[in-house]
Design the sequence.
């Protein structure tokens, strides 16, 4: 029997009827195969001969091996040719057509199982917690174990590892990126230029770094050249577009993703990109849609509340804060109170609270990455531009003070993975008008990137 130590409940078949249906044989034939050909059947402890179960992967492996070949050969003498036609679903015109059909059937079952595993993996990755990321990697590993020759599966595994590396401490982040490169290279061995592998390689580059932006862009272009409609690549490119200040392009890329492939991350990218290019009503509608499709999503809650607060939209902020049923369990009560106070300050209801609120955020900035971003936003909003640049230098480069990368849910954002989209959003408009902003984006590597590709960011184009 083929060894298989990671059985999935989804791949388990209970009872002779389900096993026979999977093999497209009658119950008697399947029972005979177990007795005479070693068909891998398991039994419930104490359940007797009738209480059986099997795993799809073991059955498919058996069917493609010597056991299956000998069983099919023996079936030829007892009307097996007709049953083979049932297995393949083909109206064979010659004996050889039956063999091709069986191979196609086996291959189709394996592809179906691999695609199901990778779909689950993407869903878990999108939840952005340490646990779900690890589970996503586990499912993708299972996919390549089942089908070691599947280049797309290897490339997807590499991409999942690379995307996860953005949310782990530096040592773990490096290890994940190195593993992702090995996965991508395996995909390239099977399929030179594989689109998923190109995507994975592009994603292995840390977000920040003068020498990372252009190579990542070139890798994404190669990925799109092979598969221009891949949902993973479109969402990744939209995410990067926000980081480079091309938010209008991010909105366009999100619109190209098929409805069935729209993830929680996609809704977040689109909503914040719309806010960044001055389309607040569309941004608000996108958040409302996201709340329907992905209720109680922590990322959406923080994003929608931050957008409302720093827009001075007291009505929206109050509605979000008051929605107890929609409040994710991971959101702290103090964060609700803080962002509500910010909304009232920016909205002009309690401007006298601005200095006290800023002082509170600034004091906590070294210890909380989300608080550091909000301190930078509020500093720029209330005219404390020097302090805003001070926090930016600490946040991105660790100068002056360091900002702890822990984000909750087991996530930790290392220094070279700090998100740059913040500097292109409305609260930092005053910073973008300051001469020091050019030095900031030059050090980030973004100014060099814009020169290389010949595309200015949106704020320079007045989008």
Sequence:
């Amino acid at each position: 029997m083929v060894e298989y130590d990671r059985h999935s409940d989804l791949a388990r078949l209970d009872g002779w009827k389900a096993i026979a249906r999977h093999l497209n044989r009658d119950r008697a034939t399947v029972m005979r195969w177990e007795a005479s050909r070693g068909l891998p059947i398991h039994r419930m402890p104490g359940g007797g001969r009738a209480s059986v179960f099997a795993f799809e992967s073991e059955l498919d492996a058996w069917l493609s091996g010597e056991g299956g070949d000998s069983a099919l050969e023996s079936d030829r003498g007892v009307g097996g040719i007709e049953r083979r036609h049932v297995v393949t679903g083909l109206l064979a015109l010659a004996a050889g057509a039956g063999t091709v059909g069986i191979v196609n059937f086996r291959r189709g079952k394996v592809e179906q199982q691999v695609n199901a595993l990778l779909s689950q993996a993407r869903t878990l990755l999108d939840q952005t917690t340490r646990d779900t990321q690890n589970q996503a990697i586990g499912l993708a590993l299972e996919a390549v174990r089942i089908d070691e020759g599947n280049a797309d599966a290897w490339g997807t595994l590499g991409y999942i590892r690379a995307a996860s590396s953005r949310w782990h401490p530096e040592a773990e982040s490096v290890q994940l990126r190195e593993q992702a490169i090995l996965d991508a290279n395996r995909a390239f061995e099977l399929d030179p230029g594989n689109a998923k592998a190109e995507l994975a390689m592009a994603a292995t580059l840390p977000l920040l770094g003068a020498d990372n932006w252009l190579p990542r862009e070139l890798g994404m272009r190669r990925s799109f050249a092979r598969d221009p409609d891949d949902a993973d690549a479109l969402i990744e490119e939209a995410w990067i577009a926000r980081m480079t200040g091309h938010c209008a392009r991010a909105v366009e890329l999100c619109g190209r993703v098929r409805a069935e492939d729209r993830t929680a991350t996609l809704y977040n990218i689109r909503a914040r990109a719309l806010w960044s290019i001055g389309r607040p009503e569309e941004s608000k509608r996108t958040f409302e849609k996201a709340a329907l499709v992905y209720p109680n999503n922590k990322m959406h809650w923080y994003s929608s509340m931050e957008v409302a607060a720093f827009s001075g939209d007291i009505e929206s902020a109050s509605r979000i804060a008051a929605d107890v049923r929609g409040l994710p369990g991971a959101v702290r009560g103090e964060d609700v109170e803080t962002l509500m106070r910010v909304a009232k300050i920016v909205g002009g209801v309690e401007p006298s609270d601005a200095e006290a609120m800023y002082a509170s955020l600034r004091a906590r900035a070294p210890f909380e990455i989300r608080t550091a971003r909000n301190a930078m936003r509020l500093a720029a909003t209330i005219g404390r531009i020097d302090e805003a640049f001070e926090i930016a230098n600490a946040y991105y480069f660790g100068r002056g003070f360091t900002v702890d990368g822990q984000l909750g849910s087991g996530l930790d954002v290392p220094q070279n993975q700090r998100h740059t989209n913040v500097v292109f959003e409305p609260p930092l408009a005053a910073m973008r008008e300051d001469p020091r902003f050019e030095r900031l984006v030059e050090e980030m590597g973004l100014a060099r990137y814009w020169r290389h590709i010949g595309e200015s960011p949106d704020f320079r184009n007045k989008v």
Q: What stands out?
A: The first strand starts at residue 12 and ends at 14. Residues 143 and 443 are 41 Å apart (CA to CA). The chain has 25 helices and five strands. Residues 95-125 form the longest helix (31 residues).
